[in-house]
Design brief:
This protein has 233 residues and is mainly beta. Helix content is 7%, strand content 31%. A hairpin with a 5-residue loop joins strand 8 and strand 9.
Length: 233
Amino acid sequence: MRIRFASLLAFILLSACSPSQATPRPMASQPAPVPTATTTLTPPPTPTSTFAVAPLDDAANTVYYFAPDVCNAKWTNNGQTLPCPGVNGQIDSGFVGLLTQTELSLPYKADSLLTIPSQNGSFLDIFGTFPAREINFADFFRAHLYCLPDTQCDVTFSLGYYDSNGKFYEPFPAWPYKYTDTPRLINFPLDALAGQTVQLTLIVQDNGNPLDDYAIWVEPRIFRHPDIFTPTP
């Protein structure tokens, strides 16, 4: 297994020491994310799980998968727009790519997002803003948080959103993760956004040192709980 991951890592890093052939263009329409205080939700207890238990038995009630929309999202490093998919070897400004079940040796079918914060220290973190969608009262954000094996990543995952006026908010709890941790299952309620049309944003912070921060979102999705009903006014 170490050979598999070493090969994958080498493939991503191929030509990393070579000068980049294309400079990402500066962002035009998207403002730099700035945390704004809003009401903080109190999440339910987060279940813990390892990959020995498949987290995808909720497929019948999943209303949105992020992975198929990975390149319909706008990826930035808080200063530049990043290409999607990223160019292998060009990780200085940040990198985003799609990994499959086979590439990660997962015991179940799953697509995962590889998100690498800017590696050269010139920019901050990595942000992926997805197409606008309306949030239901019974919606939860679910994902396994992970680090690419054979890397020593130390990151913080978080979730933000842009409202319909283009204002950015990051009111949700942050989820720190280190390469020595077991995969962490997030099951977070989005009821505070119920009825709003928002652009959800996946965020990875580098915790002060971006080296080796190969952060993975395994099957990020929106699950709609079948036993929770929208309250009647």
